[in-house]
Amino acid sequence: MAHAHDDPTSENRAQSELTAGNRVAFVDQYPTAARVTRLCFGVSFTALLIGAVLGIVQALHRTNVFRGVISSVDYYTVLTGHGVLLALFFTIFFLSGVFSWGVARSLDRDLLSRRFSLFWFGLQLAGATAVALAIFGGFVGEIPFEADVLYTFYAPLQAHPLFYAGLAAWLVGTWLAGADWIRLYVRWRRDNGGERIPLQTFMVLTTTLMWYIATLGVAVEVLVFLLPLSLGLIDSVDPLLTRTLFWYFGHPVVYFWLMPAYFAWYTILPKLAGGRLFSDPLARVVFVLFLILSTPVGFHHQYADPGIAEGFKFVAMTNTMFLLLPSFLTAFTAVASIEYGARQRGGKGYLRWMTALPWSNPAFAGCALAGLMFAAGGFSGIVNAGMNINSLIHNTLWVPGHFHLTVGTASALTMMAISYWLYPQVTGKRLQFYGLAQIQPYVWFIGMALMSNAMHRAGLAGVPRRTAEPQYQQFSFEAVFGSVPEMRLQIAAGALLLTIGALLFVTVMAGTWLAERGRGRLRVDSHLPEPISGVSDSPRVLDNMKLWVVVAVVLVAIAYGFPIYSMLADGAFNPAAPPVPV
Amino acid sequence: MHVHRFERIWLVGSLLLIALFVATVTYGAVGAGYGMVDAEGGQVDGTDPTASENVREPGVYNGSEDGHYDVYVETQRFLFVPGTNEPIRVPANSTVTFHVTSSDVLHGFEVVGTNINTMTVPGQKATVTAEFDEPAEYGIVCNEYCGSGHHTMEGSLQVVPPSEFNETSEVQ
Description:
The structure holds two protein chains of two kinds.
Chain A: H1 10-19, H2 26-29, H3 31-62, H4 75-107, H5 114-136, E1 157-158, H6 161-191, H7 199-230, H8 239-250, H9 252-267, H10 269-272, H11 280-293, H12 310-322, H13 324-344, H14 362-385, H15 390-393, H16 398-427, H17 434-460, H18 484-514, H19 545-569, E2 580-581
Parallel strand pairs in A: 1-2
Chain B: H1 5-30, E1 59-62, E2 68-76, E3 79-81, E4 88-91, E5 94-102, E6 107-111, E7 117-120, E8 126-132, E9 136-141, E10 154-160, H2 167-170
Parallel strand pairs in B: 2-5, 4-10
Antiparallel strand pairs in B: 1-2, 2-3, 5-8, 6-7, 6-9, 9-10
C-alpha cells in the first residue's frame, strides 16, 4: 500500500494540532517512523486479507462442507500460503511497524535515517513477495515454482529455491529492522547517560535480542542446508538435524508473534481501559524471562521424534513450564491495570467494575477479548507441553485449535485492535467505519470460540491436522465430547465468522487509508500515562541487556549443545536423505 | 524492588502450579513408567531402512519374551507397510513394540484413540511399546504432511482374540 500523505505539509500539521487536542499527532512529530509504520501495516494487512481468504477455503474443504474451490492436492498450496502469510508476514510486518512507532515514541526521537529504514522494509517486502510467488506458483502448472512444504518446510521435502532465497532475504530484513531500533537506542543512550531505558524501548530491545538468538537456527538451516539442497549443490541432508534447527527457531518465533501483543497489553491497554499500568518492574521482569527462556524449549515440538534422548526432552519440558511464569505474571498485571482503569471510570464491586469498561471502544474490546482467549489457549498449551499427555494430541487438530487461540487471537486480535488506535496516529486520519470496527472484535471472538473448541475436541478424538480430507476408509473417529459432524459444522461456521471479522477489519483500514486527512478529530493520541509502580521501583540490573544475553546463550548451550553436537558428530549430512521435490 | 502483596501471592501460586505440572510429568515418566519415543531405536539408512542391522523386513515378529511381539513398519509416501494394504494383526493380552522407519520423508504414525503417536524421520528408527489387553480394531493415520497424497495415507491395526491368531503363519 502506498500513502497519499507521506509528506505532511505545514498546513495540515497546524490543522492536526488543532484536531488532536493539545498534542501533535505522531505522524507530524516523527514522520519517518510514521511512514515506516504505515508501510509495514500496509503489507501486514494485505497478508492478513489473503491469508484469511485461504483460511476459509481450507476450513470448508477439510470439513467437507464445500470442496468446489480447490482440489485436495491444491489444499496443501492453500495451507502453505495460509501459514506463511499469516504466521510470518501478517504478524512480523505488524511487529516491524509497531516497534518502529514504539521506539520513536518512547525515546522521543525519529528513526535516524529514512533511507536505511526504507531499505530494510524493502528487503523484507522483496523477500516476502518472492516467498509468496514460490508458493502460489503451485496453483499454475506452467510456472515452475512449487513450495507446498507448509510453514515448517521439513526436509527432505523440497521447495523451489525461490522459496528459501525469499525467506533468507526477508530474515535479513528483520535483522536490519532490529539494528535500526538498536542504533536509535544507542544514540539516545549517548545523550541520556544515567537514565533508565523507557519501557517500550526496553520491550523492543529484549524482543529483538531474542530474535537474533532464535533466528540463528533457521538461518543456518536455510543457508547451509535447504537452499544449497534446492539448488543441487548438495545431494542430501540429515532430516532430524534440519528439523531440530527449525524448532530451535520455531518456538521463539511464537514469542515474536506474542511480544507485540504483550507490548500493547502492558503499555497501551491500561490507558485504553482508563487507567495506568500496574507495575513497571514486573513488566521488565516478564520481558527478561522471555529473552532468556524462549529459545531453549524447542525440543517440546519434538517430543514425538525418534533420535532425541528423553533427557533433552525433559530439560525442554521443564524450561517450557517455567516459561508459563511470565504469562501468569502478565495475566495478573493486565487484569489489575484494567481493573484500576475501571475503578477510575467509576466501576464498583468485586466483579461489577467490568461493566464500567469501554466495551464499545474497539481497541479496548479487541485487546481484552484477545487476552481472555489467551488464557484458554495458555491452558491448552500446558497440555501440549506435558511431555506424556502430549502423545494423545500430538499433530492432531488440537494443536491448530491451540495456536488459533494464541497467535490467531491473542496476537492477531490484539494487532487488529491496536491498529484501530494506532493507524489514525500514523496517518493523521480519523478512523473510518467506526461502527464496523466496534462489532469486529466480537465477531472474531465468537468465530474463534466456535472454531477452536471444536478443533480441540476433534484433536482429542485423534483427527489429524494438516490434511485435506480427514475422512478415512478403514476407520472412523469416535468423539469424546459431542459428535464429529457437529464439530465440522462448528469449525466451518466459526471460520466463516472469522473471515467476516478479517474483512471488516480490512474494510475499516482501507477506508481510513483512503480517507481525507484533517476531517474530524483523531479521537486518539500517543500519550501514555506513567505506571502506578514506576521505573524507580525496578532494579537497574534489569536494564543490563548484556547480562541477559549471556544468560540466554548459556541456557541455549545447555539445552542444545550436546544434542546438536551428537547430530553433527556423524557428519552434518548423515544419516543422509535425498530431496523429495513437491 | 517493590512488589505488591497481591502480586507476590500470585507469583508464589504460579510457581507452585508450575512445580505441580513438572511433578505430574515426572510422575508419568518415573512412577507410571510411560516411555517416551527417544533415541533408543538408533539410526538407520535414510532411504532403505531394512538394509540396516537394527531393522527387519516389515512384519510381525516374536519378541524377547512370551507374549511380546515386535512389529516392523515402514512408512513411505503414502503407505504403511504393513498396515495399509493388509492390516497389522496382533493377539490380545500382548505387549507390542512398534519399530517404525521412513524411506522418504517425514511421516506420522498415530494409532487413533491410543497414545501411540510418533514421528517417523528418515535416518532414525522410532520405537514405541504398548500393551493390548482387549481385542479391538484401530485406525492408523499419518499425521505429518508428506506430500500431495498425504490424506490417503491410512491403515489399520487389528488386535484379535488369541484363539484367532495363528502364531505359525502370522509371525515371521
